[in-house]
Amino acid sequence: MTALFATFFTPLRRFALVNLLAWPTLLAHAQVTPPGQVFPAPAATPTDTTAASADEQEFATPSVIGMGPSKGLVLHYERMPRFRVTSEAQVSGVRNYASDADKNARLIIKGYVPLLNNPHLKLVMGINYEREEFQFRTRPIDYELYENIEDKGLKTLGAQLAVIRPVNEVNWYIFRVKGELSGDYTSSALGLRDYVRVSSEFLYGWKRSPQFSWGLGLQLGYTFGRQSIYPALLYNRTFNSRWGVEALFPARVTMRYNASPKSLFYVGYSVDGFNYIIKLRRELMRVGQNGQPEPGTVALRTLELRETEVKFRGRWERDLLDFLWLGAEVGYRYNYAFDAFDRTNADREKIIDSKFAGAPYASLELFITPAIVKAFKR
Q1: Strand 83-89 and strand 212-221: pairing?
Q2: DUF6268 domain spans which residues (predicted)?
């Protein structure tokens, strides 16, 4: 019985694992986003064991020769040193706050699974979990916004579906829809109606050569803090054996330097936006000059937090094993907004205007590449 079980189970286990780990190949056709995210994963390089077959190479993709290895499972940790926080009330009934943030850290975990992998149509499902934490030098007792954040952190749990459609040898398009739960929720306080956030995008592009691909499209998302639609220009180009550019303007522009097939350097900027719902422990009432509640308004039980930041960054990626890569990044963060808005009353008025001092940051990342499939087969 044991021999029979091993005969049946061992090939099945190998088949399941190989297919599960093969999903980074699909990402070579998906969206370009800032570090820590994987759409699109780059085109196959000499060290990428999931290079497409000759038939697949006839279909256009947004990736170009020279881009780094495809990213699969991603573990990312980012930390900033102490910086100044100043919050000013924009309505009566709310006080000001000023202190130093001793800690601002982010943990990001992402993974992707293929639903369909044909040369002319690919479907990729992704999941992600993110947590941002703050600790303030002066504990923000009785200051609702930061008291909640320090105790519970800001969390995002999401899932997405990407449709990658190579049309022919020149044209391609991408459609992606993503749903997330974003806020300071705990498992017992989770509510879809309160925390759900939806974003999507569509890009149509042209593959002019193996070294040059570009596209135009629209994005609906929270890059600039609130949900909005804005145009997007994708531009991937490799100029020679060393230099290239990878961009999804205006959200990200990055210059690439290929020191070797196993070592790449990047420099550029990215714009990151976040939108969280903060549950208040105590109701917050907007009051007028006479100290009475403003006419036509009701007490606030939640706040909408809109965060936008610009990062000027340098990044290094290096392989540790055939399938495991390390990403190290340093840079400077400029915080454009960390503002809280009324999401209860119809005027959606800004309640708190916060200013974060600029600060350096550093991050470390480990990610698995398709080379693990080859390692498993050996």
Answers
A1: unpaired
A2: 202-279
- Which pLDDT score is estimated for 46? 35
What is d(CA 156, CA 126) in angstroms, rounded to the nearest whole number?
A: 14
At residue 68, the 3 state secondary structure works out as coil
Q: Mean pLDDT in the chain?
A: 81
| Residue numbers in the chain where pLDDT is lower than 50 | 1-57, 373-378
Peptide bond into 250 cis (omega under 30): yes
Q: What 3-state class would DSSP assign to 27?
A: helix
Helix (H) or strand (E) holding 143: none
C-alpha span between 66 and 51 (Å, rounded): 13
- Give the pLDDT score at 48: 35
Which stretches does DSSP call E strand in the chain?
74-80, 83-89, 97-118, 121-136, 154-166, 171-183, 196-209, 212-221, 228-238, 243-249, 252-260, 263-284, 300-319, 324-342, 350-356, 359-368
